[in-house]
Design brief:
Layout lengths: L11 H9 L2 H20 L7 E2 L1 H8 L3 H13 L3 E4 L2 E5 L4 H25 L2 H20 L2 H18 L3 H20 L6 H17 L3 H25 L1
Antiparallel strand pairs: 1-3, 2-3
Amino acid sequence: MAAPADRGYLLPSMAAETTCRTGPAATRTGKLRATIADEILRGALAPGTPLEEVELARRFGVSRTPVREALRDLAASGLVQTRSHRSALVARPSLQQLRGMFDVMAELEALCAGLCATTMRPAERQELLALHESLAALVRGGDPQSYHEGNERFHEAIYAGSGNDYLAEITLATRGRLSPFRRAQFRSLGRLAQSHAEHERVVTAILCGDRDAAAREMRAHITTVEVAYERYADSV
């Protein structure tokens, strides 16, 4: 498979998303989305609870626009049920639904990692290694939220490094739907160090140019993410 001549681009749909959500507005929406997702996953907001836009806007001191955007994103993750001309409701995807989503995520990310082993350019490999090393400091600091943010950048580098723009787009979209569950798993004891060790095996395979090993290690990593989330969910 031929790699594109220039990887420093966004697909039209990804570019449009980036244009719509940049700067302070994107930050407000992201923080609001994360807070509501955390409350749902912890059980503070029970399934069936109405989510009134006006009430949420007043509570968080924002306009209704970021509230509406956050609820739309959470609906894509299965955490919120939207209803026409009525308030949204708290929902929770079934275990079967989540496992199906994680199965797809594992295969997409495995394909990205495998392609990285054969198509990633030297500069991209160095960037991936630097991101991986920066996560080590966050493990020592024990900060789940900062590690989650760094983890997102690490995985995005692998999507981009695959050299396949369509694959990167659908992998990013699928990850977006699973983001609340992937973030929650980092609250499990010892998960940060375990995640970083799994990354180490993925990075080593990519840098060695071993496509099969890179795909295998990434698939195993995402499977472990799913298990870690399920353990966290059982503990709250």
